Amino acid sequence: MTKLIGVYGASGFGREVMPLARAQYPDAECVFVDDGANDKELNGYPILSFAKFCEYQANDKKVSIAIANSTVREKLAEKLRSESIEEINIVAGNSVILDAVNMAPGAILCPFVTLTSNIKIGKSFHANIYSYVAHDCVIGDFVTFAPSAKCNGNVHIEDHAYIGTGAVIKQGTPEKPLVIGKGAVIGMGAVVTKSVAPGEVVVGNPAKPLEKK
């Protein structure tokens, strides 16, 4: 076998990503990579530890990190770099990518994701099913969009931010982009109408900081 594709993570999201990887690389052998799995196979695919993946005889090895936790994702990306293993983009065949989209390695675009035009996206971006990013947005590293997250134009989202299921981020302007700070969490169904501070958790419509009890 000359080409080996690993989906890092044999949990729920990894199981969703594997068919996308198989479709994108039909001539490769596809395996799960998971150091905590008890089983040796899942959905017909072998499960290998990272050490076994590295030892596997293949001329070309590539990995997609299908781990929801962005901090873990960053650590695993560094682990791949230390072994000179390429981190790849997995893009569903029915996703839509328009003009001038600059996307760093490690992205996962699930089915029905849309990226419009003039967008810059950092490393290891996860865009779950039906989510979208509109024009003139800047997305940092290790950002996660849950299903149906909606990011309108002229929004800057900093590293490790999490945009919850069904959340909507209002459009900014070229002169004053709306900013979602580093590590911020946008709650499920939140409607974000103004910038969110780094590390802040916001919920509701309009979105407001979550009150600590």
TrEMBL record:
- Protein name as it appears in the record: Acetyltransferase
Write down the position(s) of the site called Increases basicity of active site His: D136
The PglD N-terminal domain extends over 5-80
According to its UniProt record, what is one Pfam family this protein matches? PglD_N
For this protein, the parts annotated as crossing the membrane are: none
Q: Which InterPro entries match?
A: AcTrfase_PglD-like, PglD_N, Trans_hexapeptide_repeat, Trimer_LpxA-like_sf
Q: Which GO terms describe its molecular function?
A: transferase activity
What is this organism's lineage?
A: Bacteria, Pseudomonadati, Pseudomonadota, Gammaproteobacteria, Alteromonadales
Task: Give the UniProt keywords, A-Z.
Answer: Transferase
Q: Out of the domains of life, which is the source?
A: Bacteria
Q: Does the keyword Metal-binding apply?
A: no
Binding-site list for substrate? D34, D35
